[in-house]
Design a protein that fits this description.
By secondary structure, the protein is an alpha/beta fold. Helix 7 packs parallel to helix 10.
Length: about 325
């Protein structure tokens, strides 16, 4: 059974997007509950601000975010709500300031950067910006960094948490598109997909081997999770407070597979998950996993799907999927 609901992804998009729940699954009490969804968008009718465009990361002034007046609906959504952006950082000194400047400040009440023992000037630069900085004394890994990010965001009273990499690969001006579906109550997790609009990933400079690996792994994960997601390997995400307080993310891995485990947990705990289109921007200054790291990540992703399938069919319990 498919259920379609209206979702507003941005000004003027209410008629273009739909939130479609995926096939239901039977929970442990025997009831039926839709657990995930995706946003489908007509790319030909997107406003200019949402269309994918090639960008050269250059002068800071050129990419400074221009304040835009909030609509009446957006003001109502944001009233009494606290949006916190978290940045898991490692050696991001060259791109941090540019990324921060593009954040739409009217949509964000707090920015928290967690530095994972960088060897460059990331911490020094961050402390010169109006950003709360937490510096790990030792490198704990990408997943371990996120754990600190989310714990701090929850401590700060966040209603919505947006994970934004400070390396400039993702467009910060699209933060409202990730926030709106959560504040409207349409979903608890939003994924910024680089594949929702055809051709955008490669146009943004994604290497061919990453493109092929991403598509292959996402296909396998969709089979395991019984989903229809366009991408499950994005680093641009939004979470509701309820989501982060429910899933046992502190039990997850400290490395890159943390993100995959979070998605599996979203399915296991019956949360609705939406996708919104985002552009990717690969350039020399942007951080990226090495080929070896990508291979290890792929194998660990497949192992996470194996664990999920065993849990789903009650063949083996797993601490990742229980409260």
């Amino acid at each position: 059974m498919n259920v379609t609901e209206s979702v507003i992804l941005g000004p003027g998009l209410s008629a273009l997007a739909s939130f479609q729940s995926l096939p239901t699954r039977r929970d442990q009490e025997g009831g039926l509950e839709p657990w995930a969804g995706r946003c489908r968008v007509d790319s030909e009718r997107l406003p200019k601000a949402m269309k994918v465009r090639e960008r050269e990361v250059g002068a800071t002034q050129r990419h400074r975010a221009t304040p835009i007046a909030l609509s009446t609906d957006d003001e109502a959504l944001l009233t009494g709500r606290r949006i916190v952006v978290v940045m898991p950082a490692f050696n991001a000194a060259r791109t941090l300031q540019l990324t921060w400047q593009q954040i739409p400040k009217r949509w964000v009440q707090k920015v928290v950067l967690v530095d994972d023992s960088s060897t460059d000037q990331t911490v020094e630069l961050a402390r010169r910006l109006p950003i709360e900085v937490i510096a790990h004394p030792h490198n704990v890994g990408y997943g371990g960094n996120q754990k600190t990010c989310y714990l701090e965001a929850l401590r700060q009273g966040a209603d919505v948490v947006i994970m934004l990499h400070p390396d400039g690969q993702y467009d910060p001006t699209l933060i409202p598109e990730l926030v709106r579906p959560i504040l409207r109550g349409d979903c608890d997790m939003v994924l910024g997909s680089r594949f929702l609009l055809q051709g955008t990933a490669r146009k943004g400079g994604m290497p061919l081997y990453k493109f092929v690996a991403n598509r292959s792994l996402t296909t396998i994960e969709n089979l395991a999770l019984r989903g229809r997601f366009s991408e499950l390997h994005t680093g641009y995400r939004g979470y509701s407070r309820r989501f982060l307080e429910t899933i046992p993310f502190l039990r997850n891995s400290n490395d890159f597979v943390f993100d995959t485990e979070v998605i599996a947990q979203a399915v296991a705990f019956h949360f609705r998950v939406a996708e919104v289109p985002v552009a990717t921007r690969y350039f020399p200054q942007a951080s990226s996993a090495t080929f070896r790291q990508s291979i290890v990540y792929g194998l660990k992703t497949l192992n996470t799907m194996r664990k999920f399938i065993l849990w789903r069919y009650r063949l083996r319990s797993n601490h990742l999927f229980r409260r």
